[in-house]
Structure formats: C-alpha cells, structure tokens
Amino acid sequence: MPVWTEVLSLTWEHLGLVAIAMAVAIAVAIPAGIALAHRARAERWALGFAGILQTVPSLALFGFLIPIPMIGGIGKRTAVVALVLYALLPILRNTVAGIQGVDRAVRESAIAMGMTAGQLLRQVELPLAARTILAGVRIATVTTIGTATIAAAIGGGGLGVFIFRGVASVDSQQILAGAVPAAAMALAADGVLGWIERKFSPA
Amino acid sequence: MSAIVAFREVGYTVGGRCILRGLNLEVERGETLVLLGRSGSGKTTALKMVNGLLQPGAGTVWVDGQETTAWDLIRLRRRIGYVIQDVGLFPHFTVARNVGLVPSLESWPEEKVRARVEELLQQVGLDPREFASRYPRALSGGQRQRVGVARALAADPPLLLFDEPFGALDPVTRVEIQALFVELRRTLGKSAIFVTHDVHEALRVSTRIAVLKGGAVETLTTPAEFRQAKGKEVEAFLACLD
After folding, report:
1. Minimal CA–CA distance to A111: which of B241, B29, B74, B116?
2. Are the CB atoms for B209 and B195 separated by under 8 Å?
3. How much is the pLDDT for B112?
4. A104, A106, A112 ranked by CB distance to B90: nearest
5. Which helix (H) or strand (E) holds B209?
6. ipTM for the complex?
7. What b/e readout covers B12-31, taking b as 16+ CB neighbours within 10 angstroms?
8. pTM for this structure?
9. CB A124 within 8 A of CB A65
10. Which residue in A162, B86, B96, B163 is deepest, having the highest Cβ count within 10 Å?
11. Could you give the 3-state DSSP secondary structure of residue B67?
C-alpha cells in the first residue's frame, strides 16, 4: 500500500517535470512557429522533422538520449529533453496554422494601412492566432503529463515510479497510485487550459 | 510634377504571365480615376503598386513626385487610404478601434483619435453611439463597408485607393454607398483611384475612366464622353449598358 506522503511528493516531482518541459517547449516552439509561418519551405522541413520526432516510441527516445553528451545521462535532465521534443510538434504546428489562418484580407489591410512587421504580428496575427496556439499548448500539456510517467524508466522520477514498481511486482495498487494522480492532473490541465482558451474567443 | 500618381512604362510579370505591359497613366490631384477592365486586365495589380503592396517589374510608379521604390513604404501607406472588396476589418477590434487605427499608429493623442472616429462615423452615416463599440461581426455588409471607408479616411490621406469596394453588396446598398462616395469626394476633395469591372459604377463615381486591356490603357475618357469613346473594350462595356 503506497503511502500518501510518497504519492504527494511524486506528484509534485511529476508536475515539476511537466512544468519545466512545457516552459522550454513553449519558449522554443511559439517563436519558431512565428518565424516559420511565412516561410513555406522551412516550415515543411521543420514540421516534418518535429513529426518524425513524434513517431519515435517514447521509451526508445529516452533510450536514445542517454548516451548523448551534455543532454544525456540518467536522470531528470534527459527526461525533460525528451518531453520537450514531444511537446514541440503540437505547439509548433498550431502556431503556424493559427498565423496562417488569419484572413488574407485582414492581413493585407493591416499592411496597406502602414503597420510595421512587428505591429502586424503583435496587434493582428498573434491575437487572432491566440486561440489556436493555446489549443496546441493544451494538447502538448496533456500528452506530456502522460508521457512523463515513462521518465521513471531512466531515473527521472515522477508518478511513473509507482507504475514501474507496480508492473515489476504485479501490484495493481501501486500502478493505480501512479496512474490515478497522473490522469487527474491531465484532466485538470485540460480543464484549466480549455477555460483560458475560451477566454480568447476570436471576436 | 503635378500628378499625384504616375505610371511610366510599367510592366509586371508573374509566373510567366504578363499582367501589365507598358502601362502609362497619370492621376491628377482631386480627380477620381476609375480603372475599368475585365478580370485579368491588370487593374488590381496596378492599384497595388501605388501603395507598394507590389513593386513594378519594369518601369516606375511615382506617388507625390517620388518613385515608390524610394518611399519609406510605412510612411507612404499611412498617407494612402485603402478599401477592398472583402473590407478586411480587424475582427478583434471594435468599430472605433478599426476606424482609429492609422491615427493610433501615428500616435495621435487618445482624445483626438476618439473625436476623429466620431466625426468619421457620422460622415459615413453611422451613429457613433450605436456603432462605435460594436464588433465587425455585428454589422451588415453595407455597414462594414461604410466602416471600411471611414477607416481609409481616418488620417486624412490625400489619396484613396478602392479595389472593387462595393462589389459584394446588394444592388440597393451598392447604389447608396456609391452616392456616399461621390458626396465624400465632393466635400473632401480627395484624389482617388477606383478599380471596378462594373461600367455602371464607373460612370457613377468617376471623373475620368481608363479602360484597361491586356495590362495597358486602351482608352482614356470621361464619363460624359464614354458613349462616344473609341476602342474595342469600350464597345464591349457599352454593350453591358443596354
């Protein structure tokens, strides 16, 4: 029978992994998406690459990263790197789609009225794309919460510790002690981010 | 050079297709020059060269005595009002913010922008108390285009560009807005270039008509002399009148 204090501390650790990974993924993918939105060729390459990353099975990706110097090794850092790689695609794709989805007439008017590139981005493209970008962040967050359970396989900690321990000892209570808080966390994240997303209703 | 806009031997080719070939045309101050032509005659392409949305592939376009390639395009565009068929109102801005956009970009004081927006909405026949705080989605097509016209006039630009602005409106609303346009032109004394494929509209709003064919001016005439003007394309458009 797992102890409550351990559930709490591993949940906290899990949340930390997800939070750091998402912060890095957002910081990379949103600016990258903005830069790629109007560059057709680069966009195809970047989305293709992020798409390939997505197809690597998660356990294998964690394994591949271990021998890489600087980012590899056993522990949290490697786990966070893998989670970031997974989270990139949905955010990148939605940022590109959101900006490209801005009505052509609206974009053309903005340019014709003498907006600079920066004003066009801040006053028109980003506000109109916000909802789509947030939808990408939401999908990425929910998947990352699930994927982060595998971090325990390479010593990254988090709720996966319960799950791997439970699988090894055929103890379903241990598995549930990891799976239930992870599922609850995913549902909560989905709810909160969905609520924020609706606040950005495209007028 | 007294003309506000001049095209000199302007050519433009895209994807191997020649859109403009040797276009020569001058727009005098205070006149409304209509570019009349079929789809593909190059009229929209020519219009977009005036505010630098496109640059000529050959020849030069002059605005206010300076080549468009020499203009700071941001400054140039803020001196030119632009109205297009799809209006392109910002859906996340209120009517007031849409109309006040260029004055805001030009950092006018907030009070002055608000007063200007009210004045403009009245000029285009929309009650500011009713419309200022609305979003574009809560407007009819005709109201949207009125806001589009108000937005183009906001910073009092000397030159206005219209790209088939009223083409998507129902006939009754179209005639109303055309009348508004003629009225505003008369009172404000702006220069305007107006692109259309509708010969009725051309006759109603213009002071001069340039009939475009194959990327060059075929006939240049006034609305009064249009029926007697020469040219194959003029005849084709005259056939639409009867």
Report:
1. B74
2. no
3. 95
4. A106
5. strand B208-213
6. 0.91
7. beeeeeebbbebebbbeeeb
8. 0.86
9. no
10. A162
11. strand
Whether residues A108 and B76 touch (CB distance < 8 A) is answered with no
Q: How distant, in Å, are the alpha carbons of A17, A45, A46, B69, B197 from that of A40?
A: 33, 9, 10, 26, 33
Q: Which residue of B has its CA nearest to A109?
A: B88
Residue B195: the pLDDT is 96
Name the residue facing B87 among A105, A107, A116 (closest C-beta).
A105
Look at B92 and A108 and tell me if their CB atoms are within 8 Å. no
CB–CB contact B88 A115 (8 Å)? no
- Provide CB contacts within 8 A for B15, sequence distance 6+: none
Name the CA dihedral angle for A36, A41, A45, A51, rounded to a multiple of 10 degrees: 70
Q: Which residue has the tokens 């020569």?
A: B24
- Interacting residues of B119 by C-beta distance below 8 A, sequence separation 6+: none
pLDDT grade, residue A2 (50/70/90)?
A: low
Q: Are A121 and A139 in contact (CB under 8 A)?
A: no
* pLDDT category of residue B111 using cuts at 50, 70 and 90: very high
Please report, as a single letter, which amino acid is at residue A9.
S
Question: Which residues of B make CB contacts under 8 Å with A?
Answer: 51, 53, 73-78, 80, 82, 84, 86-93, 101-102, 105, 135-137, 151
Helix boundaries (H) for B54-106: 73-78, 95-99, 101-105
| Interface probe, candidates A113, A128, A132, chain B, greatest B C-beta count within 10 A | A113
> Which bin fits A75, alpha (ψ -120 to 50), beta or left (φ > 0)?
left
Task: Locate the chain A residue with the closest alpha carbon to B101.
Answer: A113
- Contact: A109, B93; criterion CB under 8 Å: no
Which residues 6+ apart lie within 8 Å of B167 measured at CB? Answer: B85, B196, B197, B198
How far are the Cα atoms of A153, B70, B105, B137, B192 from residue A202, in angstroms, in the given order?
A: 42, 38, 22, 11, 34
Residues belonging to chain A with any Cβ–Cβ distance to chain B shorter than 8 Å: 103-116, 119, 123-124, 127-128, 202-203
Nearest to A69 by CA among A59, A78, A56: A78
